[in-house]
Each structure stands twice: as structure tokens, then as C-alpha cells.
Design brief:
The protein has 295 residues and is α/β, with parallel strands linked by helices. The chain is 31% helix and 31% strand. A hairpin with a 2-residue loop joins strand 1 and strand 2. Helix 6 packs across helix 7. 46% of the residues are buried.
């Protein structure tokens, strides 16, 4: 008998994978958590029925959410990852020699423990002495910080349940205040095929709060629509202003997806996506805040 996992991506589209066995399943205080062994993509982390990562394609997402911002900032020393309990973003952050402190803020400690047990290839960086794992609400964590982080990576789940607040303008204002004077942040912002309203709203909010706002993308085979976007907000540094020679110099470590060429190419948007974010900006208020209030 064959067993299949099915993710309901929209009311009209499902995505299915053949499952060889269930390695772990539990109901945490926040969500339903499962680790499955799939025939196509190896071990897979699932939260509330949605694919979070697999050992075969995780490198695309984790390299792009980490290396684009960290290669844009000239010398990132303190980095926070909000969400991302699997540890993949932290693993990539630690490849940058300038990083002295990496803080993982994950609301559900059971996700971290499951990743340590079943996804060691992804969670390996969590044992590094530069890493501080904090099991707490990422929204509250950043609300209490001022000018503490050079880079913040918002590695959230889909905008449901405890992650809803991570896609709000109020949260991005809090991110602004938690960044150093030349800091920048990146958030995953879903697929333009299935989440147009969300991308438009988030980009408009980030454009109002940050002097530099950019959208970039990557192809993640197990994510809805495959075409996956990231929204970057920066106080000073523009990822498009970083020259290829500088990117090549910064890449002292091996990568499987990210490169100097991919860095620049990922900001080239198809016309329907460019139209989407421009329409969002046009509909937003013209004034730019300083991050929602005084520091």
C-alpha cells in the first residue's frame, strides 16, 4: 500500500508526495508537527499540514534568505533569525566570517528539537558557540530591541496562526528600530502566483518604512508555485549596488544555488511581478516613516 502526503495549496490545487514512513508527529502548544521520509525529497518537516523544508531542496531557500542580505551588508556582525527553527538560515549565516553573534528566535521549541533529531544536515549550525537559541515570540523579542542587529532574517511560516503578526506594518517598524544605523532585513513573502495581495501589501509597507526596498526571488521546488519571493528592506545598503567583484570576494565558502550572478539576477522581476509591487507602492501613503516612531 502506498502512503501519500498532500498539501492543500489552494482550494483548487493540491501537491502530493509519496511517503515512505512517518519519523515523528506531535501536537505542540502551537501547531501540528511532523517529520516524514519522502521518496522524492528525503526527510521533510511539515507544520500544520504545510511543507516547511526538505533535505533535498532546502539549500535554495536557506542560501537565498541568508546570503543576499549578508553579502549586501559590508560587515554583518550581529544577526537575528526570526522563526527558522529548523536551523537552516543560521547554518548559512555562520558561513560569513564577520558574524560574531547569531540569535535564533523561535516560538516553538519543539520545532528546534525535531530539527536537531531528524534534520541534522540543516540544524548543524545550532551547536556553534556563536549561536544563541531563544524560545520566545519573535515579535516581542524585536519590540524590546534598539539598534542591536546588523541583519534580521524573518524566516517565518505561512501567514497563519502565530506567524500572522510577522507580516504586518507594525512588525516591520519594530524591525527597523531593532536594526543598527546601516542595518537591513529580509522576509520570505510567498509566491506571486498564489499570494499577490500579501506581496503587494508587504512591499508597500516596507517601502514606506525603509529607504531601500527590493523584491527578489528563487525557485524552490516544494513550495507553492515554485517561484518564491523575498522582500528586503535596508536603511542604507542597496543589494543592486554591490559589484560582482565584491560578491566574488565575499564568497569564500561553497554554495549550491547562490552566486554573484544569481545575486544580481534574482532582482530581475517578470513584468507581472514588477507591476504588482509598483501598484502596491502607488496605493500606499507617500510619506516614509522612520520605523513607526522615535527610537
Amino acid at each position: 500500500m502506498e502512503l501519500w502526503f498532500t498539501e492543500r495549496q489552494t482550494p483548487h490545487q493540491d501537491f502530493s508526495l509519496r511517503v515512505e514512513r512517518t519519523l515523528h508527529r506531535e501536537k505542540t502548544p502551537y501547531q501540528d508537527l511532523a517529520v516524514l521520509e519522502t521518496a522524492q525529497w528525503g526527510r521533510m518537516l511539515v507544520l500544520d499540514g504545510y511543507i516547511q523544508t526538505t533535505v533535498e531542496d532546502e539549500f535554495v531557500y536557506h542560501e537565498m534568505i541568508a546570503h543576499v542580505p549578508l553579502c549586501t551588508h559590508p560587515r554583518p556582525r550581529a544577526v537575528a533569525v526570526i522563526g527558522g527553527g529548523d536551523g537552516g538560515a543560521i547554518r548559512e549565516v555562520l558561513k560569513h566570517p564577520s558574524v560574531q553573534r547569531a540569535v535564533l528566535v523561535e516560538i516553538d521549541g519543539r520545532v528546534v528539537e525535531a530539527a536537531r533529531t531528524y534534520l541534522p544536515e540543516i540544524s548543524s549550525g545550532l551547536a556553534d558557540p556563536r549561536v544563541e537559541v531563544r524560545i520566545e515570540d519573535g515579535i516581542a523579542h524585536l519590540a524590546q530591541r534598539r539598534a542591536e542587529y546588523d541583519c534580521i532574517l524573518v524566516d517565518s511560516t505561512d501567514p497563519v496562526g502565530p506567524a500572522v503578526g510577522l507580516f504586518s506594518a507594525e512588525f516591520y517598524a519594530s524591525v527597523y528600530r531593532a536594526l543598527t544605523e546601516d542595518g537591513l532585513f529580509v522576509a520570505q513573502t510567498e509566491s506571486p502566483f498564489f499570494n499577490r495581495d500579501l506581496i503587494q501589501r508587504v512591499f508597500a509597507s516596507v517601502s514606506q518604512i525603509f529607504p531601500v526596498a527590493r523584491l527578489y526571488w528563487a525557485t524552490v521546488p516544494t513550495y507553492p508555485g515554485v517561484f518564491w519571493t523575498f522582500t528586503l528592506g535596508s536603511k542604507r545598503h542597496d543589494p543592486l549596488a554591490v559589484v560582482s567583484e565584491e560578491l566574488d570576494r565575499r564568497l569564500t565558502f561553497p554554495t549550491r544555488y547562490y552566486s554573484a550572478g544569481i545575486h544580481r539576477a534574482s532582482f530581475v522581476l517578470p513584468p507581472f511581478v514588477e507591476e504588482l509591487i509598483q501598484a502596491g507602492k502607488a496605493g500606499a501613503a507617500p510619506s516614509r516613516s522612520n520605523g513607526g516612531g522615535a527610537r
